């Protein structure tokens, strides 16, 4: 396996696992948890879920730009060698990373503090913010995957 194929594989796996994780959390786990668990159990569950998922997201946030720029410069000869679709993917990818960092350092931190101190209304408020942020990042991630797989069909 060449370094180029390793970069492509890590890039695709990182994107699929990050976006897939958001899809599962937002569209599958959230509705079930909301209907079956009381707030203390539900909010505690979410802290546990995020505590296990977010280290993976940090790995993806590191791997995606590293492997993406590796491909741009090693496979395509630099930024001038890629089409508009790659520039759009780069911009959306960085936006997703910044959104994730905000989620991690602000609402998630406040959610953990509220759960530890049993401030359930505040924890619920923070979880609502996280749900909205994940929804935005999920939409961006799905757009990114569509551009990556459709490339020139979507963005020239």
Number of domains: 1
Q: Which stretches are low in confidence, meaning pLDDT under 50 for 5 or more residues running?
A: none
Distance between the termini: 30 Å
Strand runs, count: 0
- Average per-residue pLDDT, rounded, comes to 95
Global morphology: elongated
**Residue share in β-strands:** under 5%
Class per helix and strand makeup:
mainly alpha
Rg, rounded, reads 18 Å
The sequence of SSEs as H and E is: HHHHH
Largest sheet properties = none
Q: Count of helices?
A: 5
Share of helix, binned: over 70%
Explain this structure.
- Helix 1 (3-36) packs antiparallel against helix 2 (39-75) and helix 2 runs antiparallel to helix 3.
- The chain has helices at 3-36, 39-75, 84-116, 120-150, 152-155.
- The model has no long low-confidence stretch (mean pLDDT 95).
- It is an all-alpha fold and 156 residues long.
- The chain has one domain (3-155).
- It is built from 5 helices and no strands.
